[in-house]
Amino acid sequence: MEVSHRISHITGGGSDGWDVFYKARRMIAQGVGVTELTIGEHDIRTSPAILAAMHNAAMGGHTGYAAVPGTPTLRETVARRITARTGVPTTAANILITPGGQAALFAAHLATCNAGDTAVYIDPYYATYPGTIRGAGAVPKAIVTTPDTAFQPRADTLMQMTKGAASLLVNTPNNPTGIVYATETLDAIARACITNDLWLISDEVYETQVWEGNHFSPRSLPGMAERTLVVGSMSKSHAMTGSRVGWVCGPENVINQMINLATHTTYGVPGFIQDAAEFALKQGDNVEIEVAAPFRRRRDLTLQALSRQNIVRAVPAQGAMYVMLDLRATGLSGEAFANALLDAEHIAVMPGESFGAAAAGHVRVAMTIADDQYVDALNRLIRFASGLAAQ
């Protein structure tokens, strides 16, 4: 007996992109001290006030089956937040609460793609994107961007590559690059979706982490609300990564169908976790600003450290909790550099190739440790790269 092709080929038959991460974790398990700059896990934990709200909700009895679409009050709270931030009228009927952003991405592709349909995404990409598409039964197709355009997709390429596709997945602020899509890019995305009649899946989980410019949801562009599914999450905005609570925002008729999907898959999110998420959102913007502040600060520290040399260069770090570093001057691939850095300096970063072909020769650094430790690790990385470039 064998498992299904859909499951066995989620990674496309190759690496899932996490080899350096797994290697670092094996070293740690063996007692080796490793500085981890790999995954997007906050170095602070969920606020005690949010945990208290979760505890009180659980002790108050909200531990049974919760409403599958999400509690009415959380759906309403998310809808009001989206209306206020985007100007697009949004109600609870436009919201499905999901077990985190990853489940929302999977559900969105199941909702928009039939088996065998082409689902387009932008390279570089978050490592789970192609596998999510394959798991939904669709065929992943990458639009490869380039460093010389700061990894922003070109309008002509978007129009050409989305012909015949069922969906287009975009992510801004972007993981792994830290790029915030320009207005011209978002306009081009909208034109391609409307002209080629496809769904847009907009991953906006980093919307609260913008260091330059402003976050702009493509759902708010003319003609896009009826063809856009927005993925949101409490993980990054409120440091609730382990609580697994997110949402999909979309047209009411699509959300109704996705509720049927949730009934047959996740069967909802625990009520006490939803109550905690509702409490967190009702605390206002200051909480989100506080959670984002360390990454804004470390982004500035990164630019200061890089300004003193010219071997390691940063992709414009406009948002998110990462910085993408261009290491092509060392002559190594991102994967070779990351492995060499781990072996020599015991610093773990993610190779650019983990996120697609476009980021070859780069590494992604998660700004997720204390400032002094982060600056020390960054300076060691720069010295290591400079030594390689001098050979």
Automatic annotation (TrEMBL):
Enzyme Commission code: 2.6.1.-
One Pfam short name: Aminotran_1_2
GO terms under biological process: amino acid metabolic process
Keywords for the protein's UniProt record, in alphabetical order: Aminotransferase, Pyridoxal phosphate, Pyruvate, Transferase
Organism of derivation: Yoonia rosea
Domain Aminotransferase class I/classII large: 34-380
Domain of life of the source: Bacteria
Family: Belongs to the class-I pyridoxal-phosphate-dependent aminotransferase family.
The protein's name: Aminotransferase
Catalysis performed (reactions): L-aspartate + 2-oxoglutarate = oxaloacetate + L-glutamate
Cofactor(s) annotated in UniProt: pyridoxal 5'-phosphate
InterPro entries: Aminotransferase_I/II_large (IPR004839), AspAT/PAT-like (IPR050596), NHTrfase_class1_PyrdxlP-BS (IPR004838), PyrdxlP-dep_Trfase (IPR015424), PyrdxlP-dep_Trfase_major (IPR015421)
GO molecular function: L-aspartate:2-oxoglutarate aminotransferase activity; pyridoxal phosphate binding
Major enzyme class: transferase
